Amino acid sequence: MYSARESVNTSLSEMLRTAGFSDVGSFSQDLMTHSELSLPANAAGVIFDIGQCVDPEAVITRIQTVIPRDIWCCVVGDSDSITLAQSFSRQGIFYFNLKAQSEALIAAATAGTLAHSPRNTVCISVLGCKGGIGNTQIAWQLAQQMVQRRSMPTLFIQGLTGSHDLDLLIGKKLVQDITPVNKHLDAMQLDAESLPDLKQNTYDKYNFVLFEETINASSKETLRQLVENTTCLILVLDRSMASVRIVHTITGILDSLNRSQSTPRRLILCLSDSRPVMPGMLSIEELQSLLERQLDIVFPYKKSTGLPAFKLRKSLSPIDLLTQRVLGAPAPASSRFLIRLTQKS
């Protein structure tokens, strides 16, 4: 039981013990403000108190990135909004009003901790808007960072038009079957541009599936399938009009889906300077004007290798900033400085 309110921790812990739960832990932590949660190793279920919070998307993202799928989870709060409860329910998370639904909460906890978690796998698609701009390296670095920070089962999938040099990065030959990389990370290659059906039993064990693909030649039907089945979209672009057109296509599909569906999807734009910035190339100001939105992360050119730089110095690492955004943490002020730093190019 996690709540910043001592009274809630005390009352719900007593109710759970009365219902037969012998090992109930309570923690004075707020889900949205604590960077790390004290999750016991033997936890079977978790209850979060979100108080008066009415922003389900932020809470859902946080839960998806800190709670393993095999642990049952529910949320309690002060709101009695049906719309709020439905937003959580669509993601396999129960929401209960503290005042009116205490008995339903205990019944759900009793049933839920004995059953498989209904929560969906979090799908993160890293999509290159042009070939040769370091998309595979960015995606692979992101997968490694996520595993290091969360230690949750993660699957890296490379699509048909990826760089096909992932085997060199991980030092193992990849086939269509899943290949173990380390304790929490597996990898595989597909012979298709589209995402596999993540509801299949094959993917039940994974909290995160990270899909990497280059989409500059993909059909609109393929792009729509990718957007529709992705929780977090990361578009990697360069300073070309071709990349701008791809981003506009994706955002158009995203806007259309958001109007017809209530499933939240996040979009992160990354500029990857894989070669020196030359006169005549689009500046960051021009890119943002054409895109009609801000860039979120900038990977500057690194002279020694000609590939995007993943480390300038510890406080300004673009891949660290991207990982924080994917995992739901707010982007620090240093990311804005990083964009200003590259605007001189």
Automatic annotation (TrEMBL):
The record's listing under InterPro entries reads: P-loop_NTPase
Listed Gene3D superfamilies: P-loop containing nucleotide triphosphate hydrolases
Protein name as annotated = Tight adherance operon protein
